[in-house]
Every structure is written in structure tokens, then in C-alpha cells.
Amino acid sequence: MSTALESTGFLLGVASWLIIGAALGNDYWKVSSVSGGVIISNRQYENLWHSCAEGSTGVAECRDFDSLLALPGHVQASRALMIIALLLGLVSMIISLLGLKCIKIGSATEETKGKITVTGGILFILAGLCVMVCCSWYGYRVVQDFNNPLFGGVRFELGTGLFMGWGGATLAILGGALLSCACKRAKSNKPKAGYYAAGQPKTIYSQAKSEPEARAYV
Q: φ and ψ at 62, to 5 degrees?
């Protein structure tokens, strides 16, 4: 059962990494709103890297953001969190693959492999939390600007990239939680050093004390 859980968690982690990467490259993190009585002939949309405008003919023109330091703070933080999440996910996949119960590598014990798998699961959870914070913060700013009556710019709505990010973050956290079930393997099943497993429990001290007495009677 643990093998199935760990394999499922690893596959969910790989799928989450792919979805997070696709979300980072998606152009539609926020899309211009079409609500209201005014009919617009073009559509605007943005992501973390550039903004685009699409005309009625379907031709889109994109412009990269000129300066990193001139960007709003939430955009800079979102870039950093998404890149950190992808790096954590990559490391998590490598570590989790080495620790899976169905993978045999050298003479590693089950306890050691269990600890490796748990480490990979924790990294997957951290990656999912980074993406969750990024998408939630970015989405909050979009909703805040949309509902602000004093905002004079273009009103945007939540785009596809945010929902992909939320989905990838959920899969990463779920996969990490399943991989963390290997903590049972990480616990040592060896008996304590001061006791014997067979027969009645005796301490090493009591056995060592009884041996000279036995020799004396002989």
C-alpha cells in the first residue's frame, strides 16, 4: 500500500511541476474585462513577463516589460516565487525518485530511503505553497483593482494562468503529502540497544553480571 501511495504522490508531483511550468509561460494571467455596455474592439492581457493587445482581427502585439525595478512589488515577488517553485519541484522529483520503495539503488536501507522520500515530499509541499502564495497574491491585486471605483486604468479579470497555477499548487501539495507517508519507513524498527528481542527482556548489564557468577559455579 505504501508503494502505491508513494508512486501516486511522485506522479502527482511530476504533473504539478509540468502544470506550474505551463502556468508560468501562459500569457493570460489577467484579461481585460468585457463587462459593461461599451463594446471594445480589442482585448488586452498580461502575465508576469509582458503585456499584449489583440485586435478584432485576432492579431496580437506583445511588449515586454521594460524595467524589472519599475514593476509593481507583487509582480516581482510572483516571478521569484514561481521560479523558486520550479527549482524546488525539480529537486523534489530527483530526490523522490531516488527514495521510492520500488527503486533499488546500491545498498541503501529502507530507513534511509524513507527519509529521502519524506524530504522530497516536503520540498514538493514547499513548492506548492510558493505557487499558491504567488497566484493568490496576484489574483488579489487583480480583484482589488477591479473593484476599486477610483481606479482609472483598464479593468482586468482573472486569467487562465492563475487557475493553472492554483491547480498545479494543489497537486504539488497533495503529491508531497502522499510522499510524506514514507515517514513510517523512516522510523527504525531495530530493538533498543539495552534489550534483547528474543526471550525475556534483559539488559546488557544484567547479562554481563550473570556470566561471571555462572563461571564461578563451574
A: -115, 150
